[in-house]
Structures
1.
Amino acid sequence: MTFKSVLIAILITAIGFVGGQALNTPQEAPQLKEETVFERVMRTKTLRCGYVTDQLFFRKDPNTGAFSGIFYDITLKIAEALRVKVEWTQEASYATYNEDLVSNRYDAFCSGVWPLALRAALETYTTPVLYSGVGVWVREDDQRVTKIDQINNENVKIAVIDGEMAGLIAYESFPKAQTMSLPNSTDRASMILNVTTGKADVVLIDTITALEFMGHNPGKIRNLIPDDPIRLFPSVYGFKFGETGMQMAFNTAIQDYLDNKVIEGIIRKHEKYPNSIFRVARPFEPTR
């Protein structure tokens, strides 16, 4: 056997060995792309919503169970634009709804939420629908606290709810003050009751909830800063972090409804106290 024929035999054997190894090597299964929330909504033609019922922007009639409110109406309009139906899947809480989104219990938080930097790693938010102002409210007859700079004092007690914005504002703006915390399932008006009954001295709460309380209990509380809210928060929709498809679809609809005064009409329909809701400024003014 010549050197050339030996070399050819070796090459054939090596090629056969490598080919056999390739055939015997387990192949990795192709990774299936996880369906996004937006893709699921479009496939099922159903938008599953989580919500919190309160007197702000989303209400539930205790007798009939019927929903109403600003975010209820806007959600139906957005669903109509997307050609999907809305399923009000789960009543949630502000303290736990972002965990519900992560675990896909529903597709969107639809009753309006104030975005927080602390939640930015867990949620994706829409553009603002409207703004809410938070006032500093005290008992009408309490003269111990007459100015906002008197609150940051260890002798002052602020009513808050676990996981609710008032606790964060109190921590950031009045770190020396005490807090009196209620469970996260508590109605916001209960914070005001703790002030009127003397259990707490201050409540940091949105204008609408405070005015609603005053409508039934006139002369009980007053706002130390009526013309300058201590916080101004955008009210938005929330999705699981990274769900940009949902974000873009909702943002497009929201901007359309802002520009063409659809949202303004819905706000006026539900705004019980004039000028209690802060509007999103339109990005242009008509030419005169």
2.
Amino acid sequence: MLKSSTISAKDSVSSIAIGGFDGLHLAHQALLARLDDNGALLIIERGCKEALTPGEERCRYTPYPCFFLDFQAVRGISAEAFGRFLREAFPSLEKIVVGYDFRFGKDRRGTPGTLRVYAGVEVEVVEEQRAGDLPIHSNTIREILRKGDVAAAANLLGRPYRIRGSVIRGQGLGKTTFFPTLNIETDNFLLPGEGVYVTQTGIDGTFYPSVTFIGKRQTTDNLFSVETHLLDYVTDADPDEVEILFLEYLRGNRKFDYFEDLKMQIAEDIEEAKRYHRQTV
């Protein structure tokens, strides 16, 4: 029932933070700050198809080992059985950290109080975290990203939003007619709303200034695509995989009557992205 992303021995874990932790955003980091040196994350995995940090992607944003627990395996569990499971899974456990809205088990009846009773350890509840008037929640960040406001999402994440994907074959128009792009296929990452963004694209750990399009190619084949153009990098062979950091929203998706109009707009997008990168160096 329990899967680990590391070879760390769970027998030595003395404190755990429990939650979904999608995005590992600033509110999640507030929970992690309460862990000791032998801390770990117990991630309740729901298998979301549009996640901020799908699967083990979450592990890259924490120094603590991550243990995964399938939501379906515990959704109907009693508080007593869950407490017993935690004691058996982490025999050195002394402290549990949860968020203010933490509930578990059948009909979400389990509370931090019942967890304290049946796990037999200290349970610390971290209050809601806010950025100004905005509560920091994974759902809030998802809504903001769907609207394309990647800068606001970064304020809640504590870093630019990042996706990872495989490079696939595109239309071929970029290299012959427009500007060369890498076409990306992502797996289970939530994509920002349709439009054009100032980005950085990572290849083999090195990030290059770029501009990225997400949406239906309304002027050509009307198919959905994720395409990134690297501003100062040329390669003869496309990489197998890239990462994209979203920095700023430039404009929405639109249809052009003529290819030449689309080409002129792409050229303007590239110049705008270059200006952004020059100003932030």
3.
Amino acid sequence: MTPADAPTATTPAPQTIVTERWDDGRLTVNVAFADWLREQNLTTCAAFDRLEPTEVARHVKQRVTARFEFDATVGDPVGGRAFYIKRHGRDPLSEYVKPLFRLTKPVLGARPEWDAMLRFHEVGLPTMTPVAFGETGPVGNRRSFVMTESLEDRERVDHWLADRRDDRTPETTIQRRALVAEVARLARRLHDAGMHHQDLYLCHWLLPAKVTRGAGAPGVPSIIDLGRVRCHATLPDRWRIKDLAQIYYSAGGVPRSDQVRFLRAYLGRPLAAEDRDLVRRVRKKARAIGRHTRRNDL
């Protein structure tokens, strides 16, 4: 098998997530999990607030992401799995004011991520499975959360690439090129759907269970951390450039030939002279990201 014969992974089919409103409209649930949530007595926002996490995964300002594990019950296909709940506290006034100076709308609370997950499933983009979303309190003192099913046994794409940076064997080359093409196709699907991520670094792409070298295509990566995703009727070029620059920046060390393959797969055609401006803008933005990262010790 030659690199050109690299196997392609299968992306999920478009799916509409059906939801129900509970707790006087404060709680929205995925109906696929409704029976299980009732069995766990998770039918109100207050019940979710009382849950004690198994592990706190991340705590940033007003946002806490925690892992919750539930014991399996007889005949229960969901119990025994793990879930994550991302809780948003009251947003400070600055989060309302800053977007005004940028002529953008505030992206606050858990609702944007919930809406983005539903939209991702609608257009067949692999991501987390949404379970529940809750929102309480008036504007300015609002608290919210989103619950998702855990993506178990995953590996970050940036780690996968870094681990194989010096591996030039034919088997790994085939895997890497298949992965590069799949990331490009998913990025294009995201943008064609009028969405941009704003944090599309490869640390937010998760591959299924670790793949042994030479074991075929590494699989379809899921895109996570959708809290800043925005939707447009027509996606402005500047947001497309930003997403592509974030991928480019976080793929440091990928051979230049694979960078070209990424662009070909993203554009769906061979590169042409008119694509030079796109490449220039992406590289310029990536350099700006690098300077910002170093300046802020990120």
